[in-house]
Amino acid sequence: MADSILIAGDFNIHMENTNDPLQKAFNAIIDSVGFLQHVSGPTHCHNHTLDLVLSKGINVIDLTIFPQNPGLSDHNLITFSIKTSDTFAPQVGIFKTRCINSMTTNKFIDALPGLFGLLNDGRATSSIHNQI
Question: Which superkingdom does the taxonomy of this entry point to (predicted)?
């Protein structure tokens, strides 16, 4: 799993209802994989907490739930910031590239005989050659 993950959106799970089996199951899942849930108030016009901000390895700060605007949506606007380190170390790496030509195409096709065997009339092979 990645070190830093952020998921935000309308989950349509009533997080304010601690007796809801779906809410309990969802909380168990996010807890088991180490996510934090940052929204702690209603996000819908019927006072439900449906919209969530989940994070793992990311410091979510200054989360604000704005009042709902019925002219725009039945959901509230949620804003937040992400706290990052002040400096980023440059990433040094080696990048390799490949030249794709008819010889490499044939090697690729030979390496995956089962995949191209699905089309016996040669359409897959000719389609690949046309893209070079």
Answer: Eukaryota
Contact (CB, 8 A) for 32 and 47: no
* Alpha carbons 33 and 27: distance in angstroms, whole number: 10
How far apart are the C-alpha atoms of 106 and 119, rounded to whole Å? 16
Rounded-to-integer distance, Cα 132 and Cα 129, Å: 6
pLDDT, tens digit, 9 for 90 and up, residues 73-110 = 999 999 999 988 755 666 677 766 666 777 777 776 67
* Paired residues of 44 in beta bridges: 75
- Token output for 68: 């709902």
Query: Beta partners for 8?
Result: 53
Percent of the chain residues topping a pLDDT of 70: 72
Q: Is 21 helix (H, G, I), strand (E, B) or coil?
A: helix
Backbone angles phi, psi at 98, to 5 degrees: -125, 145
Q: How far is CA 15 from CA 3, 24, 53, 72, 105, in A?
A: 25, 9, 12, 23, 52
Q: Does the CA dihedral 65-71-75-77 come out positive or negative?
A: negative
Q: Please give the structure tokens belonging to residue 72.
A: 């725009």
Q: CA-to-CA distance for 49 and 52, rounded, in angstroms? A: 8
